[in-house]
Amino acid sequence: MNQVLRFSGSVKRDPAIDAWMREHRGELGTIANYWFEVMRECGDDVRELLHDGHPTVCVGDAAFAYVNAFKAHVNVGFFRGAEIADPKGLLEGTGKFMRHVKLRPGHDRYPTALTKLIKAAYTDMKKRVEADLLRVPSHKKRPNRAMQRTSISHFI
Fold first, then answer.
1. Average pLDDT for consecutive 10-residue bins of the chain (156 residues)?
2. Is residue 7 part of a domain?
3. In this structure, is residue 2 part of a structural domain?
4. pTM value?
5. Residue 105 and residue 145: Cα distance in Å, rounded?
6. What CATH number should be reported for the domain holding residue 77?
């Protein structure tokens, strides 16, 4: 099943996120802002919103990543992180779908690898969204039996 977390209200540029960034200054805010900008730049179809109090990016309305600042670190999280390739082993978490990368000031581990994870999460979600659009609703896959009988008797 192609489970996708969707949010109504995602927009091209959410002023609430800019306010969140202003509230999170210092090293942690700088880290969160930098990685959120990387997420924003993934494609023209990227939309954003504040979800559960943290900046979240979507492909259209389908969430693929977020940032959140804590007391000593920033999380860069992925809604389908358990399913994206992580050759450097940056992802943490044990949930069925979500994973995150913890970033601490002065410990910029593998920025190229994290950029690749963000792009992979975007690409993965874009494919999921496109697959959802192509999927034919189940009620249209098979005509109901009454309709089949009428159609057949019409030709006899």
1. 83 97 95 97 97 96 97 96 95 95 88 97 96 65 42 34
2. no
3. no
4. 0.83
5. 64
6. 3.90.1150.200
